[in-house]
Write a structure and sequence with these properties.
The complex is a heterodimer.
Chain A (H helix, E strand, L loop, with lengths): L3 E4 L2 E4 L5 E7 L5 E7 L5 E9 L2 E4 L6 E3 L9 E3 L8 E8 L9 E2 L3 E5 L1
Parallel strand pairs in A: 2-11
Antiparallel strand pairs in A: 1-3, 3-8, 4-5, 4-9, 5-6, 7-8, 9-10, 9-11
Chain B lengths: L2 E3 L4 E5 L4 E3 L2 E3 L4 E8 L5 E7 L5 E3 L5 E5 L4 E6 L8 E9 L8 E2 L3 E6 L1
Parallel strand pairs in B: 2-12
Antiparallel strand pairs in B: 1-4, 3-9, 5-6, 5-10, 7-8, 8-9, 10-11, 10-12
Classes of the chains: A mainly beta, B mainly beta.
């Protein structure tokens, strides 16, 4: 079955450590997105990529980095520069252009920094 | 830039009663509109979407929404709710500005069904 896989589901890290969240899709989508979700704040866009080897900052990119070396994969690194990294992270993908009529979401990764 | 407002952060409703979750948006260009549902510790699932055509859109689980361009609204409705509808609901907008294809979400409405 086609879909988006995020791993791991739960992640614990010590303060000051970098951590990488995985996102893989087999939907043949060009566009991929990372969102952060905090209670009462909805989903906020961190980074998005519309094509391989290209990506753009979203609304809250500080303290995060991404890469898009393959169409299927869009990993997110939460760096030590991110001041409040504990959150629920969601990855999504979609077609591009006039075919971009719906985004599909993974099941999320809950990151807790202790 | 586009924005989405969901005025109600929490909505409690008795089982089998009707419900309306409100969504207003702001954009200087034409938009696509969406409602997503999220169950605890899960990703988002699409309920319904408005792209063009009829302003009344029907989705899964008996939900429907009406696009009102003059009021820039896209309210979600269900005539009779069930316990299983307890979840968080997000309204989202995407502009038809190709090259800027990101979704902008509202802050969500938590729907609680009271038995």
């Amino acid at each position: 079955d086609g879909g988006i896989t995020q791993s791991p589901k739960y992640l614990f890290r010590k303060e000051g450590q970098n951590v990488t969240l995985s996102c893989e899709q087999n939907l043949n989508h060009d566009a991929m997105y990372w969102y952060r979700q905090d209670p009462g704040q909805g989903l906020r866009l961190i980074y998005y990529s519309q094509i391989v080897n290209d990506f753009q900052k979203g609304d809250i990119a500080e303290g995060y980095s991404v890469s898009r070396e393959k169409k299927e994969s869009f990993p997110l690194t939460v760096t030590s520069a991110q001041k409040n990294p504990t959150a629920f992270y969601l990855c999504a993908s979609s077609l591009r252009g006039s075919l971009n009529t719906e985004a599909f979401f993974g099941q999320g990764t809950r990151l807790t920094v202790v | 830039a586009q924005s989405v407002t969901q005025l109600d952060s929490q909505v409690p409703v008795f089982e089998e009663a009707p419900v309306e979750l409100r969504c207003n948006y702001s954009s200087s260009v034409s938009v696509y509109l969406f409602w997503y549902v999220q169950y605890p510790n899960q990703g988002l699932q699409l309920l319904l979407k408005y792209l063009s055509g009829s302003t009344l859109v029907k989705g899964i689980n008996g939900f429907e929404a009406e696009f009102n361009k003059s009021q820039t609204s896209f309210h979600l409705r269900k005539p009779s709710v069930h316990i299983s509808d307890t979840a968080e609901y997000f309204c989202a907008v995407k502009t038809l500005n190709f090259g800027n294809e990101k979704l902008t979400f509202g802050t969500g409405t938590r729907l609680t069904i009271i038995p």
